[in-house]
Amino acid sequence: MPLDEAVLASIREAAHLIKGSRYVTALTGAGVSVESGIRPFRGPGGLWTERGEPPMDGYRRFKADPKGYWEEMLSPARRSRFSDSFLAAKPNAGHYALAELEAMGVLKSLVTQNIDNLHSEAGSRRVFEIHGNRFKLRCVECNARFLRAGFDLSTLPPRCPECGGVVKDDVVMFGEPIPGDVLAACHTEAGKSDCIIVAGTSAVVYPAASLPLIVKEKGGAIVEVNPLESELSKISDVVVRTPSGEALPALVEALKKLA
Ligand code: ZN
């Protein structure tokens, strides 16, 4: 379906803004993966809405009993419970457009709240995953990440080959602090940005919520790509009111015309 004129005008405006910026970053959320068939956690059709929310004290329970945490993680019931929506998910046009923006030298880095690995799969290179990556494991002591596939789980809890610390799923649980290395990188990137593209997220959850504000407070600009109005809309410089899978490829084309 062709984009309507108002949306196209906002995309051209976004392209001009981005072209005139020195350091452009992006923040993405669940909305960019919806078109890949990844179900959101909350809201209509949400995984948690349907199957119940994970325990709020998950991280505390992990710390108290890492072996029990792993035994539950590896139980067949648990494995089938949350994996189905990720199976067969492939990057969509929005993911590929962000990867292309980086390859064009326009986008310097990308912060995502998604755990589905689709940005990396699409070819994005500087990706900071604030909520972790479901295909990885992480040492809680030194933050080293390891691919889940092939990691030795013969002894539970598994230990970090680098420092001997306990290893858990990289996905950040309720009650678990955002890993310090990722959090620091996000703040560094936001601090450098004079323009941030916020796509598929209403950015109300900390720390994602603070990143556009950091950019804005330094006099930078916010480009919001979201089919729905959000809290961020009010302070955004350009709002593109259409799903990211349509908006971002059109943005790439608009930028190429300006080149
Ligand atoms: Zn370690």
Structure in words:
The structure is a single chain. Helix 7 runs parallel beside helix 11 and helix 9 runs parallel beside helix 10. The protein has helices at 5-19, 31-34, 47-51, 58-64, 66-73, 76-81, 93-103, 118-122, 180-192, 210-217, 244-258; strands spanning 24-28, 107-112, 127-129, 136-139, 145-147, 167-169, 195-199, 221-225, 238-240. The protein is built from 11 helices and 9 strands. A hairpin with a 5-residue loop joins strand 4 (136-139) and strand 5. It has a domain at 5-39 and 91-130 and 179-258: Rossmann fold (3-Layer(aba) Sandwich), CATH 3.40.50.1220. A 6-stranded parallel beta sheet has the order 3-2-1-7-8-9, with helices on both faces. A 3-stranded antiparallel beta sheet has the order 5-4-6, with no helix packed on it. The model has no long low-confidence stretch (mean pLDDT 92). The radius of gyration is 19 Å and the shape is elongated. The two termini are 26 Å apart. With 259 residues, it is α/β, with parallel strands linked by helices. Zinc ion (ZN) is lined by residues 139, 141-142, 144, 160, 162-163, 165. Zinc ion binds at residues 139, 141-142, 144, 160, 162-163, 165.
How is the quaternary structure best described? single chain
CATH class of the domain at 5-39 and 91-130 and 179-258: Alpha Beta
Q: For the report, how would you describe the main beta sheet?
A: 6 strands, parallel
Distance between the first and last residues' Cα:
26 Å
CATH homologous superfamily classification of the domain at 5-39 and 91-130 and 179-258: TPP-binding domain
